[in-house]
Amino acid sequence: MTANNPKNQKLVITVVQKDDGENVLNALHRDGYASLLISSSGGFLRRGNATILTLCSSEAVDKVIKIIADHASERTEIKEPNLGVQVSEWYVPQSVKIQRGGASIWVLDAELAGYVRAGAFK
């Protein structure tokens, strides 16, 4: 393999709400961080998410996290109860307030980074 073996390179994996994905990605690009957005889903509310992969130096991790924090908004949402069961006098289902948004972030060591062009890993 002839790809780069980046010393002190980190892979920042970020999961934000789908609504915030493009804003976070554009902010990272504006500051010169090449990033990849992948659509994903899951979580308690089963809503769409955006997973963003960013490769940066270990010195830049704090700046990348700040950019993400500045562009990943939080929201309060009301989750209505599932009324698929019969409601009785002793149980009255209530709505629940749920905080959504922000970001989940993992920072990993990047052992190898490269791309495939013309059948070769560079």
Automatic annotation (TrEMBL):
Q: Which InterPro entries match?
A: CdAMP_rec, N-reg_PII-like_a/b, N-reg_PII/ATP_PRibTrfase_C
Q: Which domain of life is it from?
A: Bacteria
This protein's name: Nitrogen regulatory protein P-II
Which organism encodes this protein?
Thermobaculum terrenum (strain ATCC BAA-798 / CCMEE 7001 / YNP1)
Which PANTHER family does the entry link to?
CYCLIC DI-AMP RECEPTOR A (PTHR38456:SF1)
